[in-house]
Amino acid sequence: MTDATRIPVIVATGEILHRPEDVALGLEPVVLMGQALERADAEAGGGLLADLDSLDLVGQITWRYADPVGLLCEKLGVKPARAVNASMGGETPIRLVHEAALRIARGEGQVSAIVGGESMHALGKARKAGVNLPWTPAARPEDTVRLAGSRLELSDAARAQGLSDPSQLYPLYENAFQSREVQTPGEARAANAALWARYAAVAADNPYAWIRNRPSAEQIATVSPDNRLIAWPYPKLMVANPMVNQASAILVTSLARARAAGIPEDRLIHIWGGAAAKEPGDFLQRDRYDHSTAQEAVLNQARAIAGDQAFDLMELYSCFPVVPKMALKVLEQPQAEPTVTGGITFFGGPMNNYMSHAVCAMVRRLREAPGSLGLLYGQGGFVDKHHALVVSTTPAPVALAPDYSVQAQAEAARDPVPEVLEAYQGPATIETWTVLYGRTGEPSQGVVVARTPGGQRVLTTVDRGDAESLALLTALDRSPAGAVGQVRRDVYGQLVWEAGAVARPRGDYQFCTVTREGLLTIVTINRPEAMNALNAAANAELAEVFDGFAADPDQWVAILTGAGERAFSSGNDLKGSVEAFARGEAVKIPRTGFAGLTSRFDLNKPVIAAVNGIAMGGGFEIALACDLIIAADTAVFALPEPKVGLAALAGGLHRLPRQIGMKNAMGMILTGRRVPAAEGQTLGFVNQVVPLADLLDTARRWAADIIACSPMSIRASKETVQRGLTEPTLQAAIEGQGRYAAVKALFKSDDVREGPLAFAQKRAPQWKGR
To answer: What average pLDDT score do residues 386-396 get?
Structure first.
C-alpha cells in the first residue's frame, strides 16, 4: 500500500488582486504575498502555515529587498526549516511546485508553500504622482538579493544591437513559425488575435484578472494609438502586461497531512508528474526559430504521463502568442482551450509569478470538474526554460518520477547549430526578423537574423530610415523569409542588413555634400536651415564620408565647412534629441564621434576646418578635432554646454586646454562665453582669419601647400605629433616614434626615395603616396 505521507497534493491556494483608488494606499509585494498565504491557509482550514517545512518565494522585481523570504517569514511569524528566494523565470512556479512534490515524495517534509507577487502598477503610479510609499526601505543595490535567471543570456552581438527585452526577441520565433506554417503575416495576425481573444474571454470571467473588458479579436488585431505596435508583428494587446498588483500562494502537503487537516478528498489536486528542459540561453546558439526541441521534449513527456487521456484543461504560457501556438501544435490539440487563467496580457503578468496564478485557476477548475486532467506549462527566459506539470483530482496511476529532466531528448532532437559570424559583410538571406517600435508608434529599427550563402548565421539591424527594407519586413501579404539582402558594417560598428540582390551605392547624402578636386576632398555640412546642427542621420553621413576619405589612397587632404553664411555648425541638434527621447530611443553617436571626427584617433591625413560662422558646442568640438582652423572674420566659437545643463564631452574639454593652455581654456569652458575669430587666433586655436568671401579659397591654398609635400611624410608627421603627446616623456616620444605605423610606412615608401632624388635632379617631386 502506498505511504500517504509520501503522496504530494495541492491542498489550497490564495490570490490577491490589489487596485486601490488612492495611489498612496498601494501595498508592497511582500505584504501582498503575506495576504495570499493567509488566504491559502484559510482555504485549507487554518494551521498549515504554522507547520511549514518549506517556503519558496518566486523571484520578484518590483522592489529591492535584501531578503524578501526572510522578511515575509518575519511578518507572518513563521520559521520554516527551508526558506528560499527562488530564481527568476516564467517557469519558476511550476518548477517549485514540482520540487515541493518531490521533497514530500522523498520524505523530506510534509507542508510546503510557494508564493510570489508584484506591485509594479502601484509603484509606477506612485512615482508618476510623486508619492513616497511607506514600504520597507529599499535595500542598497549591492545588498539586494541576487537571483538566478535575473538576466537573459545574450551575446555581445545581441546587446550591441540593443536587444535586451523579451518583447524584442519573441517575435523572432513568431515570424519564423509563421513561415513554417506557410502563413502570410496578415493571416497570422488574424490567427493570433483570435487566439488572444480566447484568452481575454477567460480573463473576463476570472475575478483576479487585471483586464476584464473582453476585447474582440478585431480590437486585438487593429493597430491604433491605444494598441500601438511594440515589435512586429505584435501590438500592445498581444504582449505581456507587467503593470499589475497581484500575488498568489500555493500550499502543497502530503496526502496524510491533508487528511489530518480534514481537507475533503475532492478538494485535493494530485500531482502526476512533469518534465523540464532548456534551450541554449544565447538565442544565436539555437538550431532554428520555428520550433523549440526543449518545448517539444517537455510537452511530449507530459503527454506520455497522461497516457491515453487527452488534457481536459490547460494553461499554456502566454507571454506572446507564438508560445502557446507552438505548444498546441506539439500537443496536437489545436482547438483545445489554452488557458484557465486568462493569459499574461489580460489576466496580467506579475513578472515571474503568472504560473502561480495559473495553478490557482487550475485548482478551481479541476475541483469543478472531478476526474479531469490538467496541464500546466510554464516557460521562462526567451523560449529557453520549459517546465510542465500534469495534475488531476484523480490520484496518479504511478508514483511520482524522481527525475523530471528530459534534456537528453531535447538535445538529441536538435538540428546542427549554424556558426555565428560577427564580422561578415556580403549577401545574406532572411532567416527571421522583427521591427522594433518606439513610444510614438514609429519604427526605431529592424532586426534581421540572416544566413550567409555558406549557411552561417549573422545578426543584423535595419536602419529606421531604410524605407525599402522596413516595407519588406512589415508587409502583410507576403513573408520576407528567404529574401536576399546585403550586410555591411555601419558607422556605429553594427552589421546592417539592406534589401536587394546587390549592395547599394553609397554617397547619396541628405545632410552633407562631398566634392573632390584632385587630391582634395571638400565636405560641406548641409543643414543651413538648422544652423548646420547635427542630428543622428547627419552624424552618420559625415562618419561615412570620413570613413571613405580615410580609406581612399587618392584623397590626401580634406576641408570641412558649413553651408550658408551663418554657421559652421551649431553642434548637436537638441530638437532631434528630444524627438528621439520621445520615441524611447537613445541618441546614437558613430564610433568615430561627432561628425565622424571627434573620436577618430587613427586618421593621419590632414583635415582643415573652414569655419564660416558660429561654431558652438559640438560644432566647436568638430573644429578642434581638425588639424587646422581657417576662420571667417564673422566666425564665433564657444562651448556653451553648461548653460543648458550639459558638458562638452565630445573632446572639447580635452582638446581646448591642450591647444591653448589651461587658464585660457578654463576661461572659455567655465563661462561658456563666445570668442570671436580674431581672439581665437590670439589664443592659438585658429590658424588664420580671413574675410568670409575668401574663406574657401584660403583653405584651398593651405590644402595645396600640404598636397605639395609628400603625403607619406605628412601622415608620418601627424601621427608622430599626435601619438607623441600621449607618451610620458619627451625621451619616450622620440625613442618610440620609429614604432609608429605611418613612420614605418614612410621609410618603406617610394616617396622617401623620390624626395632626395627630385632635389638632386632639381625637379618637382612626383609623390605617389604609397
So the answer is: 97
Grid cell of 300 as nine digits: 511530449
Cβ-based burial of 301 (10 A; exposed 0-12, middle 13-18, buried ≥19): buried
Q: Which of 181, 641, 719, 754 is catalytic?
A: 641
Give 516's strand partners: 521
Distance CA(252)–CA(11), nearest Å, equals 6
CB 289 within 8 A of CB 169: no
Q: How many CB atoms lie within 10 A of CB 398?
A: 9
Per the annotation, the verdict on 621 as an active-site residue is: yes
Separation of CA 282 from chain center: 13
Name residue, grid cell 488575435: 193
Q: Which residue of the set 28, 296, 621, 719 is catalytic?
A: 621
149: pLDDT strictly greater than 80 = no
Residue of 616, 721, 720 whose CA lies nearest to 659? 721
- Please name which of 589, 614, 611, 593 lies closest in space to residue 602, comparing C-alpha atoms: 593
Cis amide linkage into residue 453, ω under 30° from 0: no
474 burial (CB, 10 Å; 0-12 / 13-18 / 19+) is middle
List residues bridging with 578 in a β-sheet.
Answer: none
As a whole number of angstroms, the distance between CA 580 and CA 583 comes to: 5
Q: Of 306, 305, 388, which is closest to residue 94 (Cα–Cα)?
A: 388
Q: Count CB neighbours of 55 within 10 A.
A: 27
pLDDT digits (tens, 9 = 90+) for 672-726: 999 999 999 999 999 999 999 999 999 999 999 999 999 999 999 999 999 999 9
Least confident of 571-580, 649-658, 711-720: 571-580
188-238 pLDDT, tens per residue? 999 999 999 999 999 999 999 999 999 999 999 999 999 999 999 999 999
Altogether, the residues listed in the chain come to a count of: 770
Q: Residue 204 burial by CB count (10 A; 0-12/13-18/19+): exposed, middle or buried? A: middle
* Average pLDDT value for the chain: 95
Is the pLDDT at 583 greater than 70, yes or no? no
Question: Is 422 known to be catalytic?
Answer: no
Closest CA to 616 of 643, 587, 654: 643
Q: Rounded to 5 degrees, what are φ and ψ at 234? A: -90, 120
**What residue type is 259 in one-letter code?**
R
Residue found under cell 623620390: 754
Burial 7-24 (b: 16+ CB within 10 A, else e): bbbbbbbbbbbbeeeebe
Secondary element (H or E) of residue 85? strand 82-85
Residue 91 to residue 95: CA distance in whole angstroms:
6
| Helix H or strand E segment including 485 | strand 484-489
Q: How far apart are CA 225 and CA 213, in angstroms?
A: 18
Detail the DSSP E strand segments found in 350-464.
373-380, 385-392, 426-437, 443-451, 457-462
Q: Who's near 758: CB < 8 A, 6+ residues apart?
A: 764, 765, 766
| Percent of the chain scoring above 90 in pLDDT | 88
- Amino acid found at 194: A
- C-alpha Rg value of the chain to the nearest Å: 33
- In the predicted model, is pLDDT for residue 182 greater than 70? yes
Residue 321, pLDDT above cutoff 60: yes
**DSSP 3-state assignment of 306?**
helix
Facing residues of 436 across strands?
Answer: 231, 445
Partners of residue 276 on adjacent β-strands: 387, 405
Per residue in 67-80, pLDDT (tens digit) is 999 999 999 999 99
Say how far apart CA 413 and CA 271 lie, in whole Å: 27
Contact 555, 516 (CB under 8 A): yes
The cell for 212 is 476584464
Contact 96, 115 (CB under 8 A): no
Burial 550-564 (b: 16+ CB within 10 A, else e): beeeebbbbbbbbbb
